[in-house]
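Example record

The entry below shows one chain as it appears in the dataset: sequence first, then structure tokens.
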Amino acid sequence: MKKIFLGIALSLVVLQGCKKDDDEVDETVVLTVEEQNTYDDAAATKFMEDHYFNSKGLIVAFDSTTDTDDANPKLSSYPHEKLPSGVIYIKRTGAQPEPGKDIGSTDVISLFQVTKSYVSSKTNDIISFGGESTFIDNVLGSGVPTSETPYFYVKQSILDKYNTANGTNHGRSFYEIEGLQEGLKYFKSYDNLNPATDYNLQGVIIVPSRAAFGRENNVYSYMNRSFVFNFQVYNSRARVLPGEN
């Protein structure tokens, strides 16, 4: 009989312990704007330490299980600039068009890219990019440059159509990534490079969340996310306004 009562008592203890575990809710860390900015900057710095360009300019993560890639220069070892907005850009030597064409703020651009988005977070006191999400990948995707780039310049017709359909009044920032616009000013485009031409990526633009969409609603639902644009501009040309708007 004692064994039966002891078994019941132990069962109750276990059940109470399980109930306590079920009642506990993981605490979500909500960063202030200043903390978010600090996290984004630290994560971008670590990203440049942990990645390198392969022979075609594609960003690759160092493999911690082997030393075969240790000879590759880190992204951080390349000449790079950090703009007041927090945007960082790196231009690969030997991968720029000569002389190239300036990229206007309303231009139609043809962009070959592998672009990913990340959330900055801290694990074991180390701040890094996590929650990787592929924004656009022309290498694994179509294999040809992207010709519609509303995140660079959204046509007014597209914006009007969205607002009409959804009863909203969003401005251009609902689609456009300001940090990309800013970073591309430091690059030039090729002159109508054949889309079938194999890529040789020009470099990278790292856009912290504050220079992307920050905490604002946007068409991509990418809030508090940084972007890494690894790209080559195959062509740019002046947009015919208002016809192409």
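Notes for this example: The chain has one domain: 27-237. The chain is about 25% helix and 25% strand.
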